[in-house]
Amino acid sequence: MRHAGPKLLTQIAAVHFVSHVHIMLIPALLPVLPGLLGVGFIELGVALAVFNIISALVQAPLGYAVDHYGARRVLKAGLLLGSLSFLLLAASPGYALLLVTMALAGLANGVYHPADYALLAKGIEPGRLGRSFSLHTFAGFLGSAVTPAIFLGIAAVLGTRAALAAGAVFGAAALLLISIPGSGVYRVAEVGNKGCAGPVPATGRVRLFTPMIGVLTVLFILLNLSTSAIEKFSVAALVQGQGLTLTWANTGLTAFLLCSAAGVLCGGALADRTRRHGLVAAMAFALAAALTALVALGVLWDWALVGVLGAIGLLTGIIAPSRDMLVKAAAPPGAEGKTFGLVSTGFNIGGAIGPVVFGWLLDRGLPSGVFVASVVFMVLTVGLTLAQEVFMARKGRGALRYQR
Predict the structure, then answer these.
(1) At residue 17, does pLDDT exceed 70?
(2) Distance, C-alpha 148 to centroid of its chain
(3) Which pLDDT score, from 0 to 100, does residue 396 have?
(4) Burial class of 376 by CB neighbour count within 10 A (0 to 12, 13 to 18, 19+)
(5) Closest CA to 131 of 276, 273, 260, 268
(6) Where is pLDDT greater, at 31 or 399?
(7) Is the CA virtual torsion 281, 287, 293, 299 positive or negative?
(8) 202 falls within a domain
(9) 196 three-class SS
(10) Which of 50, 145, 186, 398 has the smallest C-beta neighbourhood within 10 Å, fewest atoms?
């Protein structure tokens, strides 16, 4: 096993940054796209739904492609496809082409999690894997956070088409970065590449659909539902249900997002110092559920609310590296791409369900229900994580008795 170290982590973090730029590019440009395309927000919402549906459908098959053909090849293809899709829309904007673009970008988006995690799992020393996962996740958070400011700024100065083309330029830059001969990505010995060092496991005979993988997929669905309620609907819920001004509600959301990114970095250091990843995740989410319940009660105002939302963000961010370590532990040898691809579909499933549920609550005049629903999903996450932790502990004791 060859460890590629910091160069690999830098490259994969940059790719994950760009992947989140591509995810957020159309949502960030929503205020200016109706003028360019001549459509309303409902049509744009349909386009975003196409992106998530395609991503959900292709993640698992692309995980198989990662393990069969090599993560490097699949990752480069994803970056190229994503970049070309936005360049095509910039060259010839129209609603029909937007739908095609979102389908192609959704296909490209399905590449990143299985390819990124497979490369990190193979190329990073085990003792640094938790911190590496956290930096990888942090880079994605950062990409989401800066995209609206950067691309709305470009649209204001150079036009919306230029902003779309700039998204393609970001992708091309990441593609060039991972194409440098002898770089970190090229130092990873991949199962799917002919002539690579080391034994080639029989990945085709690996049993992937295990109960543990199923549990982790459900866990990813619940994690998405728990956090997306706050990320996407908290501002509307706070303004509509608790009478907060838009400024304070947005300040609270900003605190949540920034502290989430900081929590990811803290969680990475924690993940490398413990093997009880399920317990870490359960404790952090239990505290987050208690604080979210306070928000739902409507007893917090101004800076107190901002502080609590920031604490919720920190706690939900902390669990991200432990979550990834759980998936790594469940992945059969040589099947990291398949495993992360399959489990990551949970995010897209949650992304398709959540907006419908939370939007329905707001339309029915139940804004506090957004936070109540988040608490319910968090509690379910805690229960599932603790059940998984107990199962793994019993399994370990059973294996130890068998060895004796």
Answers:
(1) yes
(2) 17
(3) 56
(4) middle
(5) 268
(6) 31
(7) negative
(8) no
(9) coil
(10) 398
Query: What's the pLDDT score for residue 402?
Result: 40
> Whole-angstrom Cα distance, residue 225 to residue 129?
26
Domain co-membership, 239 together with 323: yes
> Do 286 and 171 have their domain in common?
no
Q: Are the beta carbons of 62 and 182 closer than 8 angstroms?
A: no
318 assigned to some structural domain: yes
Same domain, 184 and 227: no
- Could you list the beta-strand ranges (E) of 112-213: none
Dist. CA 109–CA 94, nearest whole Å: 22
Please tell me whether residues 393 and 304 are part of one structural domain. Answer: yes
- Please indicate, yes or no, whether residues 353 and 300 belong to a single structural domain of this protein: yes
DSSP string, 26-95: HHHTTTTHHHHH---HHHHHHHHHHHHHHHHHHHHHHHHHHHHH-HHHHHHHHHHHHHHHHHHHHHS--H
Q: Does pTM top 0.85 for this prediction?
A: no
SS3 367: coil
Upper half-sphere CA count for residue 161 (Cβ side, 13 Å):
9
Range of the domain at 261: 211-403
Whether the Cβ atoms of residue 12 and residue 207 lie closer than 8 Å to each other: no
55 touches 105 (CB < 8 A): no
Question: Looking at the domain assignment, is residue 204 inside a domain?
Answer: no
Rounded-to-integer distance, Cα 62 and Cα 337, Å: 8
Whole-angstrom CA distances from 399 to 108, 209, 333 are: 41, 21, 19
Tokens of 37: 């395309």
Whole-number Å distance between alpha carbons of 401 and 403: 5
pLDDT score recorded for residue 186? 67
In a domain, 215, yes or no: yes
Confidence band, pLDDT 50/70/90 cuts, at residue 395: low
Q: How many domains does the chain have?
A: 2
Q: What pLDDT sits at residue 250?
A: 78
Q: Verify that 137 and 236 share a domain, yes or no.
A: no
Q: Which of 311, 326, 315 is nearest to 277 (CA)?
A: 326
Distance CA 92, CA 89 (A): 5
Q: Looking at 192, 227, 242, which one is the last position of a domain?
A: 192
Length of the chain: 404
Placement of tokens 């989401």 in the chain:
144
pLDDT in the model for residue 133? 80
